């Protein structure tokens, strides 16, 4: 048997899922140390000679002596051959891959009788089945294999610095921005970076001297190039490509590639067809100078497709893979990889987490449907269900309904290009481009959406959501957190698409009031208001009615039927591209009722009299005491106002509708007494 990539998500899968979920909405950090490490490595460990880049392995300074691993490599290679003998086709393909690597100079045979002073280490390997006709198996080299528990593996001795990758969502957004798109990838990218001579002997491995004879003796090989499997390999490849592009910064395509390359994938778009044609030609020439061969080209430009076909580098698949999504260049659509959630007889918390974490949606296009899975997950967490115990019948039924909707939504296809250039060619006018960010929250989740507008067209660019914290917060505070998400996401999209104009919208008047307020605010509110001020122009925040806010869809969730062709979600409010129809909101003439829970927080460094004034100042702006002839009527009206504000933060089923209680009237009376004492 070979290893097959159909296993449930591991910790790595979950980590990858949460990283995707956080793209664009995590606070901006300072990663100067990573940039310094990259620059130092490029300057001292990568050289260029005779049309190839040569890289050294980034060794840890204090690593333990590396063992040979010869015995364990022999055992594992022999076991691998026995398994492959049961599938002769796979054994044949395995041997063909190693022979091709030898013929192309990626590996070489080793004369074990020749002694040298370099460290020697053997790496076991195994096959992983792939869903591919041409290459049904991929060889994986186990650089984490240890000879024994007290001996290090090769990966233990190497630095595991992460590569400086471009923002995945940013690449996808730019891919959808312009009329003409183009994609390609580097053929066997790792193997086209040569490995320094002194490091080659730690990459030895064993294989049959005659692959057609499983009983033939084992031969020792070693890599002449960077192998796929070392923890540092992605970093080395990234550093090599960046160095090559920086060394050729005078070439116009270098600037595009520095932003539009992800590991070994090139994804870009242009407004003019002549530019995409020049990009195809000039990029191939630039990358071939580093011994990188670009293949699997695809474009919606018929000229580029014909040029690629003539040069035998056209991607002949019906739908090209673009960062795990599928692009049909002829139809002009993108879709998600098919990964249906099976119908299970027994549903557990682990089942729901596994399938939820396997959803791939970096731009958040499916959030109105998938948010329901995250909400039910939090419900299971809150009720502390065991990982592998069957869930109650009603929860299983609820999950099955959500799973069906997720399957249906994930099978949808979307226009690759955000704008319809056939309808109006004026949308190429970049100076007319404006972003609209809309945020919203409910008691279960909060988030934001970003739309792009040009002339009279609008389209959803990106959306992000978060489930509400287990520690209950008031709805106004969740709305404020949604505004923070909106500010971060808006800034992120601005930077990735290089668009300066942006308007921000919220349907929470309390949030807008906080953003405009000059008064001292509770610490929780103040910290978030300050971040929003730093990220956005506060004058650009506007009021949007809830019914016209597409972000409302990602806070409560909708079915797949409601999701399909949902104009509000995919295009935004009807008025979004008509300035004269934008909703208006006057901060000065609007009265906002803020409950005590929202207004009070941890102690502030101010006098008690100042604190009292800030706490109760809202009562006099809401209720005019001169309108009431009796104290009893004033207290009842005040109590009903406070209850209304409290009910606004609760689910419908939890709201209080009965007659006023004695305790409510007493609290109201004390509130007015404190007010009279201060004023």
Q: Cα distance, first to last residue? A: 83 Å
Low confidence ranges: 1-10, 602-617
How many helices?
23
Sheet/helix structural class: alpha+beta
The whole-number mean of residue pLDDT values reads: 88
Portion of residues within helices = 40-55%
Tell me about the largest β-sheet: 5 strands, mixed
The main sheet orders its strands as 20-19-18-21-22
Strand content: 15-25%
Using DSSP, what is the number of strands? 22
Q: What would a concise description of this structure say?
A:
With 679 residues, the chain is an alpha+beta fold.
What do these coordinates show?
- The chain has 679 residues and is an alpha+beta fold.
- Helices cover 41% and strands 16% of the residues.
- It has 23 helices and 22 strands.
- The strands form 6 sheets. It has a 5-stranded mixed beta sheet with strand order 20-19-18-21-22. It has a 4-stranded antiparallel beta sheet with strand order 11-12-7-13, sandwiched between helices.
- A hairpin with a 2-residue loop joins strand 11 (261-262) and strand 12 (265-270).
- Helix 6 (168-177) crosses helix 14 (475-497), helix 12 packs antiparallel against helix 13 and helix 21 (608-622) packs across helix 23 (662-678).
- The N and C termini lie far apart (83 Å).
- Residues 1-10 and 602-617 have low confidence and may be disordered.
């Amino acid at each position: 048997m070979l290893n097959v990539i159909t296993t449930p998500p591991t910790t790595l899968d979950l980590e990858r899922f949460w990283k995707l979920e956080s793209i664009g909405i995590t606070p901006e950090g300072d990663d100067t140390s990573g940039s310094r490490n990259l620059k130092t490595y490029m300057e001292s460990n990568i050289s260029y000679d005779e049309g190839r880049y040569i890289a050294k392995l980034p060794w840890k300074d204090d690593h333990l002596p590396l063992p040979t691993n010869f015995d364990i490599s022999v055992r594992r290679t022999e076991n691998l051959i026995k398994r492959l003998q049961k599938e002769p086709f796979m054994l044949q393909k395995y041997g063909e891959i190693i022979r091709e690597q030898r013929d192309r100079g990626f590996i070489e045979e080793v004369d074990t009788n020749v002694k040298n002073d370099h460290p020697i280490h053997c790496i076991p390997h195994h096959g992983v089945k792939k869903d591919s006709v041409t290459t049904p198996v991929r060889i994986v080299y186990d650089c984490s294999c240890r000879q024994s528990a007290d001996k290090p593996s090769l990966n233990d001795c190497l630095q595991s610095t992460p590569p400086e990758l471009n923002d995945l969502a940013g690449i996808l957004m730019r891919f959808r921005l312009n009329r003409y798109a183009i994609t390609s990838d580097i053929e066997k990218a790792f193997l086209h970076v040569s490995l320094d001579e002194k490091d080659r002997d730690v990459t030895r491995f064993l294989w049959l001297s005659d692959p057609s004879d499983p009983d033939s003796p084992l031969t020792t090989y070693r890599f002449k190039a960077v192998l796929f499997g070392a923890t540092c390999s992605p970093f080395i490849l990234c550093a090599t490509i960046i160095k090559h592009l920086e060394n050729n910064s005078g070439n116009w395509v270098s600037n595009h590639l520095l932003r539009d390359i992800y590991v070994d994938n090139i994804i870009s778009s242009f407004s003019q067809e002549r530019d995409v044609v020049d990009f195809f030609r000039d990029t191939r020439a630039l990358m071939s100078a580093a011994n990188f061969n670009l293949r699997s080209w695809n474009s919606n430009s018929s000229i580029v497709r014909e040029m690629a076909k003539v040069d035998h580098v056209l991607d002949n698949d019906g739908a090209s893979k673009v960062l795990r999504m599928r692009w049909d260049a002829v139809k002009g659509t993108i879709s998600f990889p098919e990964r249906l959630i099976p119908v299970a007889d027994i549903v557990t918390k682990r089942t729901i987490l596994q399938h939820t974490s396997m959803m791939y949606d970096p731009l958040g296009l499916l959030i109105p449907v998938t948010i329901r899975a995250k909400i039910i997950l939090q419900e299971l967490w809150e009720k502390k269900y065991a990982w592998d115990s069957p869930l109650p019948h009603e929860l299983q039924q609820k999950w099955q309904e959500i799973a069906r909707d997720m399957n249906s939504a994930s099978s949808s296809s979307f226009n690759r290009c955000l704008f319809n250039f056939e309808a109006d060619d004026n949308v190429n006018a970049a100076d007319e481009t404006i972003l609209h960010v809309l945020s919203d929250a409910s008691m279960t989740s909060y988030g934001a959406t970003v739309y792009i507008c040009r002339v009279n067209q609008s389209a959803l660019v990106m959306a992000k959501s978060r489930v509400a914290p287990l520690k209950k917060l008031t709805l106004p505070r969740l709305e404020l957190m949604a505004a923070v998400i909106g500010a971060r996401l808006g800034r992120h999209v601005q930077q990735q698409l290089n668009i300066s104009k942006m308007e921000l919208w919220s349907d929470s008047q309390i949030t807008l009031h906080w953003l405009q307020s000059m008064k001292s605010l509770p610490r929780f509110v103040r910290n978030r208001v300050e971040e929003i001020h730093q990220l956005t122009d506060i004058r650009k925040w506007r009021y949007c009615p809830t019914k016209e806010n597409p972000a409302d869809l990602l806070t409560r969730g909708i079915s797949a039927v409601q999701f399909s062709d949902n104009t509000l979600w995919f295009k935004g409010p009807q008025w979004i591209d008509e300035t004269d129809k934008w909703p208006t909101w006057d901060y000065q003439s609007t009265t906002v009722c803020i409950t005590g829970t929202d207004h009070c927080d941890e102690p502030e460094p101010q006098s008690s009299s100042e604190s009292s004034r800030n706490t109760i100042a809202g009562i006099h702006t809401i209720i005019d005491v001169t309108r009431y002839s009796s104290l009893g009527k004033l207290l009842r009206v005040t109590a009903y106002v406070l209850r209304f504000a409290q009910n606004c933060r609760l689910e419908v089923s939890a709201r209080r509708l009965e007659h006023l209680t004695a305790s409510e009237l007493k609290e109201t009376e004390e509130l007015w007494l404190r007010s009279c004492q201060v004023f």
